[in-house]
From TrEMBL:
Chain residue ranges for the region called Disordered: 1-44
SUPFAM superfamilies, per database record: PDZ domain-like
Protein name: GIPC3 protein
PROSITE patterns xrefs: PDZ (PS50106)
Protein's organism: Chunga burmeisteri (Black-legged seriema)
Residue intervals of the PDZ domain: 123-190
Family the UniProt entry places it in: Belongs to the GIPC family.
Signal sequence coordinates: none
InterPro entries: GIPC1-3_GH1, GIPC1/2/3, PDZ, PDZ_sf
Length: 223
């Protein structure tokens, strides 16, 4: 993402133009050197404006002037009057928790940004009966790691309240907010087998009528 420059000032009405640059009335035009065309002034870059909504439902907002994920979250938060720390992740062109539409490093001009914010908190107890839990973890680049995929038939897949899109907030009451996804994956991998542990998860806020309460089976497809 790149910051877009501001438009230059428009010339005053009635002032003469030379290659798009306003001149004072009565000022003679500067002749170009013989055989060398006058250089063209740089074109002002257009302001890139993107549309955004909260995934669980909100009016449409407009944001611009961000260069990284943290600035993007700050812009979205400003539009909707929330804290940037409320945003778990963003998807493009769908309000659903669809990891195929997860916002990455590129945003197209026609892309509509949906921000998924903190919903209910839930705790689950897991017993590690195998070396792998069956989780693929990613992070939003701003301090929250969350579940991107759940392997079918895995330990986690058998726990219906754990969903794709859930943010992992703590492992055994040890907060992991601020950790990168590979750090969280390492912590889970190093947990001893046959010893139960607790995951504190935060699920994205649901739109009215959508399933996904604290004890309801997860409607997200495991992978």
């Amino acid at each position: 993402m790149r910051r877009v420059g501001k438009h230059g000032r428009q010339a005053q009405e009635g002032s003469p133009m030379e290659n798009g640059v306003g001149q004072e009335p009565g000022t003679p035009e500067s002749p170009a050197a013989e055989g060398i065309p006058a250089p063209r002034p740089p074109r002002a870059r257009p302001r890139l404006v993107f549309h955004t909504q909260l995934a669980h439902g909100s009016p449409t907002g407009r944001i611009e002037g961000f260069t990284n994920v943290k600035e993007l979250y700050a812009k979205i938060a400003e539009v909707f009057g929330i804290s940037p720390t409320e945003i778990l992740f963003c998807t493009l062109n769908t309000h659903k928790v669809d990891m195929q539409k997860l916002l990455g490093g590129q945003i197209g001009l026609e892309d509509f940004i949906f921000a998924h914010v903190r919903g209910e908190t839930k705790e689950v107890e897991v017993t590690k009966t195998e070396d792998a839990l069956g989780l693929t973890i990613t992070d939003n680049g701003a301090g929250y790691a969350f579940i991107k995929r759940i392997k079918e038939g895995s330990i986690i897949n058998r726990i219906q309240t754990v969903c794709v899109g859930d943010s992992i907030e703590a492992i055994n009451d040890h907060t992991i907010v601020g950790c990168r996804h590979y750090e969280v994956a390492r912590m889970l991998r190093e947990l001893p087998r046959a010893q139960p542990f607790t995951l504190r998860l935060v699920q994205p806020k649901k739109a009215f009528g959508e399933s996904g309460g604290g004890v309801s089976p997860c409607s997200c497809p495991g992978e």
